[in-house]
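For the sake of transparency, this paper describes our internal protein records without simplification. The record that follows is passed on verbatim for readers who wish to inspect the format:
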Amino acid sequence: MDDNGTKVLVNDEEQYSLWPGYLAVPSGWRDTGVTGSREECLAYVRETWTDMRPRSLRRQMEESANNGARA
């Protein structure tokens, strides 16, 4: 990857990926607007992506916890 042209992508499951800035964003991903060197992008991902579980799993676990609290 070009050290000055890396961007950060995110998918619907709120999983992050570094992507070369010169390539089109693949289907299922969207640009976060964060660009820079690989190191800068990794730092952003480390700060932002604090829960590695996919969004659908987090929601399912929250629903299960809420349903258990009501029982």
